[in-house]
Design a protein that fits this description.
By secondary structure, the protein is an all-alpha fold. Helix content is about 60%, strand content about 0%. The protein has 9 helices and no strands.
């Protein structure tokens, strides 16, 4: 998958979990039987922390966001103001010129400023450091000596928000298009599954005692 696809998938997981959490908060049945909601939250946290780890991977064999920023830092001349404007007529050319200055070339050198990528890379590493450390020690590997703090959902979502902001910025610079604002909207009305019973009491009893099919 592309970086955009990877981040979009993480944002879709977040949107799904947020809806699930809202349903749980309003459910007396969930409050009385908390194991399943807690299990879903654990699976969500593990999945998203691994996804964040993939996006901040330093390995040059990967297609991570870190690798993209490092390549832009190393080869800034490949993204030029002339290409970004693309020969369009006024006033669009003026708007594109202003956009390139604001996002990629504040010094107006005529090409992408590598300091922009350096700054974005450092900020991404800083905001994701705790989540990445936890993923490395607790999720991806069973490290014997563990020093990472358990990230909160707030910590995880702060990284996702930052990745979304970076996706918007670099989609604009590299594709000359605005990415949709906000996380993806799930079109399927999947929450309806919680409006009806999944099993009848006798079916549930059969599953619990191992006699059900």
């Amino acid at each position: 998958m592309s970086i955009d696809d990877e981040v979009t998938t993480l944002l879709r997981h977040q949107a799904t979990w947020e809806s699930f959490r809202a349903a749980v908060a309003n459910s007396k049945a969930a409050a009385a039987n908390p194991y399943f909601p807690l299990w879903v939250s654990e699976m969500y946290a593990a999945t998203v922390t691994i996804g964040i780890r993939r996006m901040v991977d330093d390995d040059d064999r990967t297609g991570s966001f870190v690798q993209l920023l490092q390549k832009m830092q190393a080869e800034p001349q490949r993204l030029t103001r002339e290409w970004f404007i693309g020969g369009v007529e006024l006033p669009m050319a003026q708007r594109l010129d202003q956009t390139f200055t604001a996002y990629g070339d504040p010094g107006q050198t005529g090409y992408f400023d590598p300091l922009v990528a350096i700054s974005d890379l450092e900020e991404l590493r800083t905001i994701s450091r705790g989540v990445r450390k936890y993923a490395n020690q607790h999720v991806a590997h069973a490290q014997r000596t563990r020093s990472a703090d358990i990230p909160t959902f707030g910590d995880i979502h702060a990284v996702l928000d930052h990745l979304l902001a970076l996706i918007r910025k670099y989609t604009l610079l590299l594709r000359q298009t605005d990415r949709v604002q906000g996380p993806p909207v799930i079109q399927e009305p999947w929450m309806r599954i919680f409006t009806q019973a999944w099993l009848q009491p006798d079916e549930l009893a059969g599953i619990e005692d191992g006699t059900g099919s």
